[in-house]
Amino acid sequence: MTVRTRFAPSPTGFLHVGSARTALYAWLYARKHDGKFIVRIEDTDKGREVEGAIGHMMESLKWLGIQWDESIDVGGPYEPYIQSSRLDSYRSYALRLIDAGFAYPDPYTEEEVEAFRKTAEEEKRPFLFRDHRPETTGAWDGSQPLRFKVPTIKRFEWEDAVMGTLSAGEEALDDFILIKGDGYPTYNFAHVIDDIEMKITHVMRGQEFVSSTPKFLSLYEALNEVPPVFVTLPPILGDGGNKKLSKRDGAKDILDYRREGYLPETLVNFLALLGWSPGGDQEFFTPFGLIEAFDISRIQRSGAQFDEDKLKHLNREHMRLLSDQEYISRGQLHATDDVRLFKAVPLLKERSYTFAEAREMLEGELSCLFRSPELSADQLKAKEPAERADLTKEALEGVLGLLEGLPAQLPAEAVKMALMPYADSQEALLKGGRGAVLWPTRYALSGSERSPDPFTLISILGIEEASSRIRAALAIL
Ligand code: GLU
Fold first, then answer.
1. CA distance readout (Å), 329 to 340, 368, 369, 403
2. Are 65 and 264 a contacting pair, CB within 8 Å?
3. How many A from CA of 9 to the centre of ligand 1?
4. Tens of each residue's pLDDT in the chain, 477 residues
5. Which atom of ligand 1 is nearest to the CA of 203?
6. Where in the chain is the domain with CATH 3.40.50.620?
């Protein structure tokens, strides 16, 4: 049997963390078993449809690298993959159910149904449509809602690949609507028909569908079809507690993570761990590694904690794995000097958790790598003891002298070896501490209190630029 999984979004908004995880698990499982992953659009609720949602969701999946084998754009053996174009199929199943005596047109007006509901409420019993099944009905002309006539009211027991044995009783069963008055099928009906027609073997979705499962099962029974394996995913809980995931915590548009400079492979890694674990301590996974390791038997039942810090740390790990060239291109990093930008990547890799942070750093703390700083004489002399008014000047002259003897480009370690003995000797000699040399040097190069150390700066700027900045500093003293 070929594994066939599907992701079946309704185009009512964007792809958020929860739906992206559902898609990911279905995709991982299909890839792991050399199966097929299908994206099917469930657009039967026209009132809730949001323009542009389909394109936005598909772009999000593409960005994550969750590639489908069958869908609206690439087609496939069971097309069309959008429910509004499958109305004939639902109709033919509906007629089959009518013929078998398992469906009937709803003869009531909205007011009549409302009256039934009210009476049930007054009598303190649940309102069930099946209590009002008409004795006889006319033929279905498509203008009335078509209702399912639940064949047997009984307790259902079923196996869920994650939750184990589940059961629900009569209360979950009612004569639900199969096809609405507007000609569109309900979700309850359409998704079952599509899953049958598209030969779906495993259905991954959230816990909110568990309570309706007896409805689906009784429909499978009436149609004499075998239901797929149900794989119920745990809820995602917000940071630090039992509350549901809030917008701030990450129930936001997946593409926002792209804007904030997260890598798609980080999101895939992070989402995979939201409700699944490999069994060991390993947390870092490439998408390929996940396909290897993924297994539905290790999906947890209890809620999964959304942890933003973990997301950031994983992102830094994935960013660090990129070559320096990839880091620049995937991070869309730009600067006026490509050579210096390239040399700054190790610093960025160390300090940034997202590409947005890396970009900010290039504009802020590291902007001195690309433009000469504006210097203040007071700051330059900030570490100078009052009794040694010429100390800064002497220190910068000393450093300048040493730089002149060095090759044009060298690594920070080599710069450090060349300058450190001088800074240390001055410490004893001038009693200003190492800082008496290192501070003005760093400030002369960066014009800022916060910057990388002077050796790193010199190494990135090159000896010529570093010397010229020190000369500029000396000129204002
Ligand atoms: N269209 C449904 C939703 O977006 C799909 C549920 C399912 O996977 O069956 O919630």
1. 15, 21, 19, 33
2. yes
3. 6
4. 899 999 999 999 999 999 999 999 999 999 999 999 999 999 999 889 999 999 999 999 999 999 999 999 999 999 999 999 999 999 999 999 999 999 999 999 989 999 999 999 999 999 999 999 998 888 999 899 999 999 999 999 999 999 999 999 888 899 999 999 999 999 999 999 999 999 999 999 999 999 999 999 999 999 999 999 999 999 999 866 656 676 666 568 999 999 999 999 999 999 999 999 999 899 999 999 999 999 999 999 999 999 999 999 999 999 999 999 999 999 999 999 999 999 999 999 999 999 999 999 999 999 999 999 999 999 999 888 777 778 899 999 999 999 999 999 999 999 999 999 998 886 555 566 788 889 999 999 999 988 999 999 999 999 999 999 999 999 998
5. 8
6. 1-71+234-321
Q: What are the backbone angles phi and psi of residue 159, rounded to the nearest 5°?
A: -95, 130
**In CATH, what is the architecture of 372-476?**
Orthogonal Bundle (1.10)
**Ligand 1 test: best mutation among 14, 83, 187, 209, most atoms within 8 Å of CB?**
187
Cα–Cα distance measured from residue 174 to residue 152, given in angstroms and rounded to the nearest whole number: 10
What are the backbone angles phi and psi of residue 16, rounded to the nearest 5°?
-110, 180
1-71+234-321 placed in CATH 3.40.50.620? yes
Range(s) of the chain covered by CATH 1.10.10.350: 372-476
Partnered with residue 231 across adjacent β-strands are 204
Q: Determine if ligand 1 sits within 6 Å of the CB of residue 61.
A: no
Task: Confirm whether 310 is a catalytic residue.
Answer: no
